[in-house]
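REQUEST ID: PR-0412
SUBMITTED BY: lab tech R.K.
PRIORITY: routine
TASK: structure prediction, single protein chain
INPUT:
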Amino acid sequence: MARVYLSLGSNVDREHYVSVALDALSEQFGALELSSVYESEAVGFDGDVFYNLVVGIDTDLSIDALSLVLKSIEDRNGRERSGPRFSARTLDIDILTYDDCVGRFGKIQLPRDEVLKNAFVLLPLAEIAPDELHPECGRTYASLWQDYDRDQKLWTVDFKWQGKIISKS
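STATUS: complete
OUTPUT:
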């Protein structure tokens, strides 16, 4: 079984699409480890604010097979792939890490570089896996977050999923 961390985000009907994605992930992978849900400004384009969180799963799927499952979940939920890379989206699910894999696996670079670049990825990852090591730089996610110095604003939001409080503002 591989331990995988996923980044999940939406800035179109955010509560609906995040909930639907969590339902699909839970159905496919069983128990999910969830960070708080954060609201953050769009990065790379002018757009509506996003809901973002990190989800931990365990899977026997290969990286390629996992990627296909995630793309299928995105597609079933109206993900538009014909527009610009940085644009509004109903749902975005990215593989951040897959065990300790480092390198290019098909079209996927692991660990995903957004882990070190974006607060909306690093903070929720540090929240649920503070003592785990980034497979490339060897530092814990908690220490990486402690030293994070980019000016990206994000804040927790009230969010419930399946009747359970995931986060509070």
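NOTES: Strands lie at 2-10, 33-34, 38-40, 50-59, 92-98, 103-105, 108-110, 154-156, 159-161, 164-167.
REVIEWED BY: pending
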